[in-house]
Amino acid sequence: MSDNGTTAPPTTGTPPFRYTAALANAIESRWQDRWDAERTFETPNPSGPLAAPDGVVPPEKMYILDMFPYPSGAGLHVGHPLGYIGTDVLGRYSRMNGRNVLHTLGYDAFGLPAEQYAVRTGTHPRTTTEQNVQRYREQLRKLGFAHDQRRSVATTDVEFYRWTQWIFTRLFNAWYDTDAQRARPIEELVAEFASGARPVPGGALWSELGWAEQQRVLADRRLAYISQAPVNWCPGLGTVLSNEEVTADGRSEIGNFPVFRRNLRQWMMRITSYADRLVSDLDRLDWPESVKAMQRNWIGRSVGAQVGFDVVSGEAEASIEVYTTRPDTLFGATYMVLAPEHPLVPSITTMDWPDGVDPRWTGGADTPTEAIEVYRAAAARKSDLDRQESKDKTGVFTGAFARNPVNGARIPVFIADYVLMGYGTGAIMAVPGQDTRDWDFATAFGLPIVRTVQPTEGHPDDAPFTGDGPAINSANDAIDLNGMGVAEAKAAMIAHLTEAGTGRAQVQYKLRDWLFSRQRYWGEPFPVVYSTEPGQEDVAIALPDTMLPVELPEVIDYAPTSFDPMDADSSPEPPLGRATEWATVTLDLGDGPRRYRRELNVMPQWAGSCWYELRYLDPTNTERFVDADVEKYWMGKDPDRPGDTGGVDLYVGGVEHAVLHLLYARFWHKVLFDLGEVSSEEPFRRLFNQGYIQAYAYTDDRGFYVPAEHVVGVEDHFEYEGNPVRREYGKMGKSLNNVVTPDEMCERYGADTFRMYEMGMGPLDLSRPWQTADAVGSQRYLQRLWRTVVDEETGALVVSEDAPDAETLTLLHRTIDGVRTDYAAMQYNTAIAKLIVLNNHLTKSGVPVPRAVAEASVLMTAPLAPHIAEELWERLGHRGSLAYGPFPEADPALLVDSSVEYPIQIKGKVRGRITVAADLTPADIEAAALADPKIVEALAGVTPKKIVVVPGRMVSIVV
Hints:
single chain; Rossmann fold; globular
């Protein structure tokens, strides 16, 4: 037993105090216990329950955030902690330099996997989730993260989702004022309607409307609202699926059931109101340009025109609204296409085919109604992706015609699955001369093609022209676009449409409002009820704050009601409907006890991840989701940074979350900012995407992945259980059966070695190949560092009290300077390389390392390998933890080279080298170069035309 309580492992043939995996594990366990006992990493708030005892917090703070994980039953593999280690190193380094660092990790714990497990086993999803969370916490603790555990939350914690529900009610009770360009409380809209300051849609007086009518008017403006939305309905599973859960052939990823597109009543979030701000504010964020581009493309802002096409024959009078980015091509619109789900389809479809209808337009049906019904059913079985990527253009004629508003042409109206209801208006004016998909459809159905842009010379006649050029075939008595370029023609056409009352300028987005309902059990219940009074059943009522949280009820069966897999007309019956005493409840909402129905859908898994970074700040607050002063301290705008949005100082996670999670979180945060709930405009001011851990995977002759750890190399091939297997390369994960766990690495090498290996494999933002055996290099560095302080035979301290020699001192301070730069930039692999160079220099000398150098080496290693650093720091005689520094400072005087070597080039080739004093003037350097014997010989008496001295780098002689 050593004097600090660490037992040396009794390994035969090994010195008793050698730094082995066994000793590393003992040290790591001891320091993890001590950090917990001494509450080393509890970060103080400026006020509230987590305030510092003396009420003082460091003026410099740093909020570091990891994208929090979903706690699966499989636990962590070595790819998961890559980013977590990277942020921990930066947090430890920043803390050692005096900054108040907030760093913790929570769990995105609602989700379908736990529910599916519950369906199979009958185990409550909360039981499974809590077990998985505990497993993750145990694994992460072994890695020595400097997390403030008091701040860790899970989205399934009732006190957490109480505030998720509270935020939802703020969205429900808010509307977006387009004039003010911000969200405002719904009460202010009511006041404007009541006073007449804002006209009521439809022209009625607000006071003349009944309560239910008023609520329906407000529902059209609320940021959280109910709508009939096209969704992926899977009868076989009894639930709506996200696009990511549907395969390319239109079946469920789980169970392989058919999936149908149909309109269902769903909760929506009006994220489109924020589209402009979501795009423009990207310029103010320190994010990778690739991620910004992905968000801009997803939002898809475009400027064009909204055009009305009046239906001139059919079963109903109607006007079909079309959005186009190319109104200049309107003269070339020869037919129209509606998405099969478009709400106008039933009303405009005729009873009979018009005389002389082209048989290709009918789909072989006797009537348009029959053709439409069959086609819509077929389209409903396709995924959006399949519909967009299909090369074969299909569709049927509705029997109706519309009038082209610029030339009066009577054009047929089709439905076709290449038009999606979720984009634009769900209807297009088809201009086959300028669009490939329209050309293919027109060719297949024998429709006219009119070019409205002059093709370039040599363009084939049998293909659309999609480039820019002068307008052609685009004139009537009121407007003549011929000869105009695209921009000029667009502006002229928009002005004409506006004057004629048939269209208007319009900014449009690909971004659709956010579908926010799930027909599941394991999710946040909506804090919403519905009246049971006749005529009011459709009116949603948000519960008051005093009735939150709405907790999930107990149910016997966690699965949604499933139906015949082909029953596309079935409707969801969520599991919460089985909790009958919960689903219908008597409440007093201010007008006496009444019966209400609860919302039976739950929120999507995205809900909790939209705001968790705010709850980390103040997790024990029972009065507010976050205290205003606490939020301002950690996330407020920096007055010294023009244009600063505020937000988390650094957010680290995978690029797979570049769009949806980040977009949804930005939307929620902006609403909270508009309503005065937070001081920061954006949740994440800086974003960093770490790379992935990649590893070999192996498949047998059936194509199944076999356990990679049991594959062996045999001569020129690989085998598993004696059978040949094929090797491939990919991202480490359970699906490829190539997982290595951090538990295995800790047992084999120790956590510090594992941490250093992952950080030394390459730049943090790049993917890197995993080779377990390569970790031995990191272990050797730590063993050498250990030996500079501890005698392996006796455990005694071996450092010298002598001053370091000049060479060592210079190398030390240059290492300190380089490591500081690398840590700040998260370039850990180069920091490790510098530490290795210094360590090699120290161990080569064969003499005891001076204390000053040993202590600096330990302190510089601490962010990467904190356990061994703490142990060595204590053995060096320091009583307290090094977690709060000091981090070594470089002496500027020792960073300046006393001499510089200059290569001397003649005709671009190095002919000699000189070493001169670093402060020599260019004239003196030139003279020294010309005096060098090798240069004298090379010049052979020739007088140089020109001599160029690049200070600190080279001398170039021109002859």
